[in-house]
Amino acid sequence: MSKIIHRNFIGPPDPSFYKDPFKIEAMHRASLNSMLRDAGVMYGDVVIMADADEIPSQHTMKLLQWCDEIPSVMHLELRHYLYSFEFPVDYSSWRASAHLVRSSTRYRHSRQTDYLLADAGWHCSFCFRTLEEFVFKMKAYSHADRVTSSKFLDYSRIQKIICNGDDLFDMLPEEYSFRDLMKKMGSVPKSASAVYLPSYLIKNADRFRFLLPGGCLRTDRPRQ
User: Which of 28, 76, 120, 147 has its CA 20 to 30 Å from the CA of residue 61?
Assistant: First the structure.
């Protein structure tokens, strides 16, 4: 906890700015540059730039720490999961990145290089403990316009979707080719395997039952 640097984001006073959620998201990300400076990172340090649900593995962290002459910028290929580690989607997650700090280092969450470290961790989308948290994100994140009906926020509907591996917004898969689109039509296939999952998750299986195969049932609200 002592290592966490917390900063309140203060947006521009113009109310029209807040009509575009992606402008807000971009400004949030840009504000992280000043936080990097405040964190005291130094030339040559390795900084991981990732969203909270993009989790590098311990092996990746040790490799970046121990290996010499790693690329100055390198993307991390993460195994993509949906709702829990019961639903592996693919290896399409690549936006997380590792940076050797230079004077030009800036926070980015987009393509910066062709270097990609394979099988570097996990990206678990919408992996929440409670149905309340699902509804909060659906209404609050940049794609909130996908909630085109109030029925999308119904707890019983969300619970059924979580257990089936279906899409929360009744959307087709996001792909660049018709062939890849057809491959992902329908529900995400379930996996009963616990191989190569985060070791902390396995050691604390009782606490994180909702993230493991067979644990799709969620609670309405957080435990008090």
Answer: 28
